[in-house]
Amino acid sequence: ATTHSFARYKANNIVEDGDLVVLYLSKENVILIRVDVNETFNCKFGSYRHADMIGLEYGTKLGSNTGRGFLYLLFPTPELWTLILPHRTQILYVADISFIMNFLNLKPGMSMIESGTGSGSFSHSIARTLAPTGHLYSFEYHQERVNAATKEFEDHGLSDMITLRRRDVCKDGFDLVDRVDAVFLDLPAPWEAVASAKRAFKKNKIGKICTFSPCIEQISKTVTALSEHKFVDIQMYECLIRFQEVRILPILTIEEAMEKERIHESKRQRALPRVLRDSYLKATAKANEDEELPPAKHMKIEKGQEEENSNKDNDDTNKKDQSLSGTPAEFEASGKTVTITKLPVEQRGHTSYLLFATLPPSVDSLPVVTLE
Ligand code: SAM
């Protein structure tokens, strides 16, 4: 039996018999277990008796019987579940999940619809946010996915907070009236569920809807349906992850910058095969002549003297490099630095567009104020 739930932390934070624990061995090796005093967890680094886990605090680092391995005992959170759950469908990941929950303004005590349930990734996060008194109505038309999610919600202590129904919401609607604060649709044709979603919103409250679609054509059809049903403030977002590399660079004078560039140029040339270097030198000399610029230092290299000159240049380069460099701390102390950010070339691309809209309270539900 479940002693605790994904939706709330345990007050004592201690692993007990029957609890769920995420075993974190490495980034690629994360497993959810239920602690059973008679069981042992085995892996290639050794064995871990569940009995040894009981009484430890979540977060503890535990060594294996061989002393060759270790793992962390982590509390099972929706974020960890999203990383390790068995994929029955495409799922929502934490970046989109947090964005959607924020823009839907989800709070404890609210009621919400999601469809489809899929692999239940988003359902876990929603349940924790709405806990302890809120409720999630989750709809899925694929029977095996319904069965698997029903079992997981039970195992994870969420079944009192989630009502999961097997239903084609585009054909048959949600069959809920005046019941929810928010709706989330991760369906191929969300526009077909908009009319029924509208009926499900609480009449006297502001309702928020979000649909998640990979193609702009789907978004376009959903926008049309939302406008026809008098949703307002319709906005689309795309949640893209961008890592920013932060660097502290020295601020150079023009002379220092030119010298640095000369050194780089000389290094670039030495990296070229000899044949290419000759034609490169000719081309740069020609370009410099055309622009009537004084020849750069490297232009003095004569054929047959490359090695000698390049060694000399190398020594020279090292000397200059040193004179221009310094430790980041030295530069920072001198106050001659600038902080920049740089985008790495490889970034995760498009997943889906997020369309948000608001349903104002119905006029009939508003209190009537009589002016004297
Ligand atoms: N958001 C889910 C998650 O984070 O795990 C993933 C949802 S998955 C991409 C879409 C699900 O919608 C599928 O499981 C599919 O069976 C279900 N579905 C598609 N059309 C449906 C409909 N008309 N009614 C109910 N469920 C539907």
Summarize the structure in words.
By secondary structure, the protein is of the alpha/beta class. The protein has 3 domains: 57 residues, Vcp-like ATPase, Chain A, domain 2 (Roll), CATH 3.10.330.20; 176 residues, Vaccinia Virus protein VP39 (Rossmann fold, 3-Layer(aba) Sandwich), CATH 3.40.50; 74 residues, no CATH class. Helix content is 35%, strand content 22%. It has 12 helices and 15 strands. It has a 7-stranded mixed β-sheet, with helices on both faces. The chain has a 4-stranded antiparallel β-sheet with strand order 2-1-6-5, covered by helices on one side. A two-stranded antiparallel sheet has the order 3-4. Strand 8, helix 5 and strand 9 form a beta-alpha-beta unit. Helix 2 packs antiparallel against helix 4. About 8% of the residues have low confidence. It binds S-adenosylmethionine. S-adenosylmethionine (SAM) binds next to helix 4, strand 8 and helix 6. The site of S-adenosylmethionine (SAM) has 22 residues, from helix 4, strand 8 and helix 6.
Instruction: Label the CATH architecture of the largest domain.
Output: 3-Layer(aba) Sandwich
- Could you give me the name of the CATH homologous superfamily of the largest domain? Vaccinia Virus protein VP39
The general outline is extended
CATH class of the largest domain: Alpha Beta
Structural class: alpha/beta
List how many beta strands DSSP finds. Answer: 15
**Helicity range of the residues?**
25-40%
Instruction: Please give the order of strands in the largest beta sheet.
Output: 9-8-7-10-11-15-12
- The radius of gyration is 31 Å
CATH topology of the largest domain: Rossmann fold
| Count, helices | 12
Percentage of β-strand residues: 15-25%
Mean pLDDT: 87
Q: Any low-confidence stretches, pLDDT <50, length ≥5?
A: 293-323
Order of helices and strands: EEEEHEEHHEHEHEHEHEHEEHHHHEE
What does the main sheet amount to? Answer: 7 strands, mixed
